[in-house]
Design goal:
Shape: globular
Strand content: 15-25%
Radius of gyration: 17 Å
Number of domains: 1
Strand order of the largest sheet: 1-7-8-9-10-12-11
CATH topology: Purple Acid Phosphatase, chain A, domain 2
EC number: 3.1.4.53
Keywords: Hydrolase, Iron, Metal-binding
Helix content: 10-25%
Order of helices and strands: EEEEHEHEHEEHEHEEEEE
Enzyme class: hydrolase
Largest sheet: 7 strands, mixed
GO molecular function: 3',5'-cyclic-AMP phosphodiesterase activity
Organism: Thalassolituus marinus
Number of helices: 5
Number of strands: 14
CATH architecture: 4-Layer Sandwich
Length: about 270
C-alpha cells in the first residue's frame, strides 16, 4: 500500500498503451511510439503543473524488452511525482518487475485522505483478452472492505464493458460480470478506468463513472466492426478527484504535429 499526500483534490494523469520498444525508433503501425509518447508528455507538462500521481495503464511495451521499460521510467522520472504501472496484454511481467524493482511503480493500492486507487492486473499471459483472477478480485474486495470511508477509483488494462466495436469487444475482460457484481456491493466505488481500446469513452452506470483513454500512440476507430486505425492524435486523460467523490476529467491531445501511420496494417 502506498500513502499519497494530497490536498482536497487528488490530481491524477493517466497515460496508456505507450507500446514502447527497445530501439528508440521502434514503432507501432508506422508510428514511432517513444516520440509520440514524449509529445504527449510535453503537453502534460504544459497543462498540468500540479500532479499527485501518474498512472500508466498497460501495454507499456510492445516488445517486452528491458530497454522499453527503462525508456518509460526515464521519461517519467522528471515529473517528480509517484508513477504507477501495471500489465497489459503486450507486456512481459518479469521484465517489467525487474525494471520497476526498488521503485513505487508496482504498488496496487494507493491511498490519500479522501480516495483510494486500486490497480489490478487483468493480463492473461499469452492472450489478447483479459481476465481478473480470483486473487485480483479478492485484493479489490479487501481494499473496499477495509476503507469504506474512501472514495475508490479502480483501474486495469482491459475494458469491462462493451465499447461498441465488434473486434474490440471480443478481447475485453472475460469475467466482467464477476467484477460488476462485486463493485455493486460497495457504495464507495466511484470510477473504473482502463486503456487497451485506444479511444476515449465516458459512461455513467449505476452511479459509477466508466472511462477509457486514448493511447499515447496510434488510435483505433470507434464503433468499427473490424480492426481500423483512426486519424486522431495521441493524447492523455487528466482526473481531478474531489473530496466529496466528484470527478472532473478530460482528454487532451497533441496538436500541430503530423504522425506517420501505416493504415494498410490490419492488426497489431
Amino acid at each position: 500500500m502506498y500513502s499519497l499526500e494530497s490536498g482536497n483534490t487528488l490530481r491524477l494523469v493517466q497515460i496508456t498503451d505507450t507500446h514502447l520498444n527497445g530501439p528508440e525508433d521502434g514503432h507501432l503501425l508506422g508510428m514511432k511510439t517513444l516520440h509520440s509518447m514524449n509529445c504527449v508528455l510535453d503537453i502534460v507538462r504544459e497543462e498540468r503543473s500540479d500532479i499527485d500521481a501518474i498512472l500508466v495503464t498497460g501495454d507499456l511495451s510492445q516488445d517486452g524488452t528491458e530497454q522499453a521499460y527503462q525508456h518509460l521510467h526515464n521519461a517519467l522520472t522528471p515529473f517528480e511525482c509517484p508513477v504507477f504501472w501495471f500489465e497489459g496484454n503486450h507486456d512481459n511481467p518479469q521484465t517489467m518487475r525487474s525494471v520497476a524493482a526498488g521503485t513505487e511503480h508496482l504498488n496496487q493500492i494507493i491511498r490519500s485522505e479522501h480516495w483510494q486507487v486500486v490497480l489490478l492486473n487483468s493480463q492473461v499471459e499469452g492472450a489478447v483478452y483479459g481476465r481478473l483472477s480470483v486473487a485480483q478480485l479478492e485484493l479489490l474486495e479487501q481494499a473496499l472492505q477495509e476503507r469504506p470511508d474512501l472514495h475508490t477509483l479502480i483501474s486495469f488494462h482491459h475494458h469491462p464493458i462493451p465499447m461498441g466495436s465488434t473486434w474490440i469487444d471480443r478481447i475485453g475482460v472475460k469475467n466482467s460480470d464477476e467484477f460488476m457484481s462485486l463493485i455493486a456491493r460497495f457504495g464507495n466505488v466511484k470510477c473504473v478506468l482502463w486503456g487497451h481500446v485506444h479511444q476515449e469513452s465516458d459512461q455513467m452506470i449505476n452511479g459509477v463513472r466508466f472511462l477509457s483513454t486514448p493511447s499515447t500512440c496510434v488510435q483505433f476507430t470507434p464503433n468499427s466492426e473490424d480492426f481500423s486505425v483512426d486519424t486522431v492524435a495521441p493524447g492523455y486523460r487528466w482526473l481531478d478527484l474531489q473530496q466529496d467523490g466528484a470527478i472532473d476529467t478530460g482528454i487532451s491531445r497533441v496538436e500541430g504535429i503530423e504522425f506517420e501511420i501505416d493504415y494498410s496494417v490490419k492488426g497489431y
